[in-house]
Write a structure and sequence with these properties.
The chain folds into 3 domains: 10-124, Orthogonal Bundle (Fumarate Reductase Iron-sulfur Protein, Chain B, domain 2); 139-233 and 392-458, 3-Layer(bba) Sandwich (FAD/NAD(P)-binding domain); 236-386, FAD/NAD(P)-binding domain (3-Layer(bba) Sandwich). Helices cover 34% and strands 17% of the residues. By secondary structure, it is an alpha/beta fold. It is built from 18 helices and 17 strands. The longest helix is centred in the last third of the chain and has 22 residues, at 437-458. The protein starts with 13 loop residues before the first helix and ends with a helix. It is globular, with a radius of gyration of 23 Å. The protein binds flavin-adenine dinucleotide and iron/sulfur cluster (SF4) (2 copies). The site of one iron/sulfur cluster (SF4) has 14 residues, from helix 8. This is NADPH-dependent glutamate synthase, homotetrameric. InterPro entries: DPD_II, FAD/NAD-bd_sf, FAD/NAD-binding_dom, Helical_ferredxn, SudA-like. It comes from Mesotoga prima MesG1.Ag.4.2. Residues 18-126 form the Dihydroprymidine dehydrogenase domain.
């Protein structure tokens, strides 16, 4: 009979971590990892594997770990997942592999901590000779170095294709470097996994905005196939009256300045960022939690998360919400800002809000928020961060004229293969809208398989 509960993972104390960008979760020791690995029942039908979009042999890597064969465990992980240290940290495991785990179905039991075990094995940094097949003399361009692009690039390189990644920024990782903060995903970890992709022979060309610095047509003509993984990096805005007051930001801008441009290390890095006393962050997803916890660490005295639905509908990972609560973030449920108020200098001083109630489920399956008449009130704030989601960048429409878009401005691609047109494939957030790291990686993997069979068929 397995132990009922996961082995706890040590964390930095909330009082210590609110002033620091050090990683909050500290990982397992070897003894802890082996004790957790022993909770796995080694199910023959492996239901957990079908919950993993990249199809890791989960019982296989756990078995090798509990036999203390870290090299074998690493090999099994890396066979399916090019970025295991990243996934072990940020995958929504509770909605993926762990949701399907048999142990978690036993009343009163928690599933095996698959993500934490994956993180432990990946963090042992065992370097392996990865088999790369002989060159097949075909060139593939990958546009965007986020999780989708990195996965497609690595899988194609392993198959002997010559792969070049074009990335708009000066560094690889996409949201992993410009969105998710250091205290959840240290950039050193991302850099190590990108190094692994490079070690497979993938070439990176940074500071290249395809559709601007290089026309898409040029790439299409020069390469045998193209994978587009450019994400959904443009922020959505509330668009309410008063939005042009000073000190109202999008989470995309605020997090990019802090993470990618290292404002959290100011003045070591010359990136200024606004920090005020009483900050409202609007939304309730992972991005909201990241923005709220970031501005708190930077020195805001009070941080208020304002969400129009209830705690039950909150899309953020429950673990991240708990961390935010422990760090003193204040939550206002069923509350919708309807107008920003400012002073004579045009600085925001407050938000006019209304209280909400929940009606019938809407298209997203969540109960629709409805305004309560006469419930208006003003919340005093001196800074606002809007974190209500991202959409594909408008540059896409102009920069990729050959690519079909759907009504949401995303690329219209075949779900199974990512095929858009002959030799053109796409995957990740640019197809699905903002989703998750592992879903983007799953899409990159499926397209890599489709590109391989397309190019081998074409000869
Ligand atoms: P991206 O990661 O967006 O990468 C796209 C890349 O393409 C970028 O590097 C971009 O610079 C580049 N690019 C764009 N246009 C061009 C162009 N024209 N030419 C060349 N390059 C271009 N998911 C989770 O699973 N867990 C989490 O905890 C989590 N937290 C998140 C926190 C934040 C703040 C955000 C914003 C997202 C979070 N997500 C999380 C979502 C997740 O990060 C994304 O779903 C995932 O990164 C999508 O991967 P992608 O490769 O499709 O796109
Ligand atoms: Fe689970 Fe994500 Fe790891 Fe797959 S990659 S096993 S879904 S934590
Ligand atoms: Fe182990 Fe759970 Fe997978 Fe069964 S379902 S093999 S217990 S991780």
């Amino acid at each position: 009979m397995a132990e009922k509960f996961k082995v706890r993972m040590r964390e930095l104390d909330p009082s210590e971590r609110v002033n620091s960008f050090e990683e909050v979760a500290l990982g397992y020791t070897k003894e802890e990892a082996i004790a957790e690995a022993k909770r796995c029942l080694q199910c023959k039908h492996k239901p957990c594997v079908s919950g993993c979009p990249v199809g890791i042999d989960i019982p296989g890597f756990i078995k090798a770990l509990r036999e203390d064969d870290i090299e074998k465990s690493t090999r099994i992980l890396k066979d399916a997942n090019n970025l295991p240290a990243i996934c072990g940290r940020v995958c929504p495991q509770e909605k993926q592999c762990e949701l399907a785990c048999v142990v978690g179905k036993i009343p009163g039991s928690e599933p095996v901590a698959i993500g934490r075990l994956e993180r432990f094995v990946a963090d042992q940094n065992i370097s392996l000779e990865t088999a790369v097949k002989p060159s097949v003399n075909k060139r593939v361009a990958v546009i965007g170095a986020g999780p989708a692009g990195l996965t497609a690039a690595a899988d194609l390189a392993k198959e002997g294709f010559s792969v070049t990644v074009f990335e708009a920024f000066h560094t690889a990782g996409g949201v992993l470097v410009y969105g998710i903060p250091e205290f959840r995903l240290p950039k050193e970890i991302v850099a190590k996994e990108v190094e692994f992709v490079k070690s497979l022979g993938v070439e990176f060309r940074f500071n290249q905005i395809i559709g601007r610095t290089i026309p898409f047509e040029e790439i299409k003509n020069e390469y045998d196939a193209v994978f587009i993984g450019i994400g959904a990096g443009a922020p959505r805005f509330m668009g309410i009256p008063g939005s042009n007051h000073n000190n109202i930001f999008s989470s995309s801008e605020y997090l990019t300045r802090t993470n990618l441009m290292k404002a959290y290390l100011f003045p070591l890095y010359d990136t200024p960022v606004k920090i005020k006393d009483r900050v409202a962050v609007i939304g309730a997803g992972n991005v909201t939690m990241d923005a709220a916890r970031t501005v708190k660490r930077l020195g805001a005295k009070e941080v208020h998360v304002v969400y129009r639905r209830s705690e039950e509908e909150m899309p953020a990972r429950i673990e991240e919400y708990h961390h935010a609560v422990e760090e003193g973030i204040i939550f206002h449920w069923l509350t919708l800002p309807v107008e920003y108020i400012g002073d004579i200098n045009n600085n925001v001083t407050g938000m006019k809000c209304v209280k909400m109630t929940l009606g019938e489920p809407d298209d997203s399956g969540r109960r629709r928020p409805i305004q309560i008449e006469g419930s208006e009130f003003v919340m005093e704030v001196d800074m606002v961060i809007e974190a209500i989601g991202q959409t594909p960048n408008a540059i896409l429409k102009a920069g990729f004229p050959a690519v079909r878009l759907n009504k949401w401005g995303s690329i219209d691609a075949d779900e199974a293969s990512g095929r858009v047109d002959e030799g053109i494939y796409a995957g990740g957030d640019i197809v699905t809208g903002s989703a998750t790291v592992i879903e983007a990686m799953g899409a990159g993997k499926r397209s890599a398989r489709a590109i391989k069979s397309y190019l081998l068929r074409k000869g």
